[in-house]
């Protein structure tokens, strides 16, 4: 079958890979109908060494079940299903606690011999714990919104939940990518009163305003920090960091209020960072967040999308065929596209 | 008057300093009757450059009010009072929220021209917000326990509160100093079911067991991590870090369970540390804590001490006169003494 392959920084091509098939009785085989490119796919697009490639790509997809293993009971042939960005057994203590990204038998797409989402099909391990059936057709107008449940909506929601957003909260969101904008939507949905969005791409921050941002700060660095501290009356109670680069982390502890919380969901492209008296400790600032258990949030958000109360799919502003996936990467990297849908 | 002065690493002497007097109408003048040496005083004792000295020392004291400014209304001449390790106005938004260490008008003892606690007397700024009257005499047998309210008990409690300890929690405490042992006491008081104390000084860990530790792990590094992960069934839900050195931080993220919380109260002797995918982010670990608002916890703990339900004063195992304070530092540094009471 055809699938996206990354050969090194800036080099994505579509190539032939082995057709997937069932390996375990808990597997399902899914023919992918809609996939997309993630902001986090741009990290290797910037830095991947050619000696490591080619690698499979993609971790967000909707598709039709073609075949199921003998132990799969919750989905069957013909079902339209969505996969979150991590697969999980649904039964271990972490899954039961709603932290499926720490599932003891789980893992991530496109690594360790598992298929990626940017391709024609995928073997889905632990199908019962991983997949959720969607009560619509594969071409439904809601598909873009539903696809955000695989990652960016759940990730934005996770930022807000871990950050402790509740009715009346003051929240600052760092980053105007799809996750940042959906963190705005999630914070609004949880009742935040003031939502400051830090971003400087007007088309995106305009969408952020529609999702619920009350203030937009385009400045960065010290100037941006000053503006946020001013508009929040001395610092933001909750900061949602949706970028993953170190300057965004520094922005976060710059704008947070003493006693406040920084919730990170952008995959950190750094290992060490300031955590001492001058950054987190002195002001009793809490640092939280991590890979979102998107699976845990699908059930909660599904009715909101199906009944049209939210339209997270508006983050998609371009669609490419799988054969032109490289063009999608280029457009997102150049910030010409916010988020790109891929049709296999 | 006489006061402890640190001239550089390993060099503490008692010298003459200016007699304190009222400067502001919100000040009180307190004749110190009992003070002590803190584990955090050992940080400069290890590393202070002689070019920075001499500096005043001490931030924990009980004493008798000698004089009050015209605006002071809650304490008066003759009252026995305790001061927490930070002074605060008691009225700003942070004080009202119980985060007195971030008071907008507050500060710390022994810096910026403010007196230290290891001396004969102190000018207390913002006396109404800072001091709490004690309903006992200056020589009462409860004085050592009451003195822990100025810092180490409040700090141990803060670790537990920020860590989210509640009935049934599994908690690991890193450090067998006074704060670590009182973090054990606080965790027990909040209902923790399993309390693993990491420390290798048997006399201290024995006291820790009396305070509520259910397990003691003497090993450090990888071996210590392995032991804690084993005894907690895969990692500790809550980790209270009561040391402040980087190896203790590394121990903390080594033993914490996915989705768990590390609460730090040992003043970090490092600014940068691991926070990326491999340490905090990947397992959705929360990092919290900071300087304890000891003032906020005095009222809550006072009845427990006055009525004999807890005996936090057992952390004091030596007493020195102010003139021999250097001996107290030496004994604590050599780990011959756990915590040293100082009688001016």
Automatic annotation (TrEMBL), chains A, B:
<feature type="domain" description="Alcohol dehydrogenase-like N-terminal">
    <location>
        <begin position="25"/>
        <end position="128"/>
    </location>
</feature>
<dbReference type="InterPro" id="IPR011032">
    <property type="entry name" value="GroES-like_sf"/>
</dbReference>
<dbReference type="InterPro" id="IPR013154">
    <property type="entry name" value="ADH-like_N"/>
</dbReference>
<dbReference type="GO" id="GO:0008270">
    <property type="term" value="F:zinc ion binding"/>
</dbReference>
<dbReference type="InterPro" id="IPR036291">
    <property type="entry name" value="NAD(P)-bd_dom_sf"/>
</dbReference>
<protein>
    <submittedName>
        <fullName>IMP dehydrogenase</fullName>
    </submittedName>
</protein>
<dbReference type="InterPro" id="IPR002328">
    <property type="entry name" value="ADH_Zn_CS"/>
</dbReference>
<feature type="domain" description="Alcohol dehydrogenase-like C-terminal">
    <location>
        <begin position="178"/>
        <end position="289"/>
    </location>
</feature>
<keyword id="KW-0479">Metal-binding</keyword>
<comment type="similarity">
    <text>Belongs to the zinc-containing alcohol dehydrogenase family.</text>
</comment>
<dbReference type="Pfam" id="PF08240">
    <property type="entry name" value="ADH_N"/>
</dbReference>
<keyword id="KW-0560">Oxidoreductase</keyword>
<dbReference type="InterPro" id="IPR013149">
    <property type="entry name" value="ADH-like_C"/>
</dbReference>
<dbReference type="Pfam" id="PF00107">
    <property type="entry name" value="ADH_zinc_N"/>
</dbReference>
<dbReference type="GO" id="GO:0016491">
    <property type="term" value="F:oxidoreductase activity"/>
</dbReference>
<keyword id="KW-0862">Zinc</keyword>
């Amino acid at each position: 079958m055809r699938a996206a392959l990354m050969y090194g920084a800036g080099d994505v091509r579509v190539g032939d890979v082995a057709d997937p098939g069932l390996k375990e009785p808990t597997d399902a085989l899914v023919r992918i109908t809609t996939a997309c490119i993630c902001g986090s796919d741009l990290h290797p697009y910037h830095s991947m060494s050619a000696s490591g490639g080619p690698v499979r790509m993609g971790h967000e997809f909707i598709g039709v079940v073609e075949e199921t293993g003998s132990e799969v009971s919750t989905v069957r042939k013909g079902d339209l299903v969505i996969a979150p960005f991590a697969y999980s057994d649904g039964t271990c203590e972490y899954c039961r606690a709603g932290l499926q990204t720490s599932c003891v038998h789980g893992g991530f797409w496109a690594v360790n011999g598992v298929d990626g989402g940017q391709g024609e099909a995928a073997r889905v391990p632990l199908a019962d714990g991983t997949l959720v059936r969607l009560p619509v057709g594969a071409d439904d107008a809601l598909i873009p919104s539903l696809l955000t449940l695989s990652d960016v909506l759940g990730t934005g929601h996770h930022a807000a939940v871990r950050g402790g957003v509740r009715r009346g909260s003051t929240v600052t969101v760092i980053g105007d990518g799809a996750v940042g904008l959906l963190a705005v939507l999630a914070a609004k949905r949880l009742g935040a009163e003031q939502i400051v969005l830090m971003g400087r791409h007007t088309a995106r921050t305009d969408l952020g305003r529609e999702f619920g941002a009350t203030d937009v700060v385009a400045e960065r660095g010290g100037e941006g920090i000053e503006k946020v501290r001013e508009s929040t009356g001395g610092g933001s109670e909750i900061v949602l960091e949706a970028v993953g680069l170190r300057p965004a982390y520094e922005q976060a502890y710059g704008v947070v209020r003493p006693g406040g919380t920084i919730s990170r969901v952008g995959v950190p492209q750094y290992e060490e960072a300031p955590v001492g008296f001058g950054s987190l400790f002195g002001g009793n600032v809490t640092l939280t967040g991590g890979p979102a258990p998107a699976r845990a949030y699908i059930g909660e958000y599904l009715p909101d999308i199906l009944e049209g109360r939210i339209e997270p799919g508006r983050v998609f502003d371009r669609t490419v065929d799988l054969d032109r996936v490289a063009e999608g990467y280029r457009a997102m990297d150049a910030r010409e596209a916010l988020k790109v849908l891929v049709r296999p």
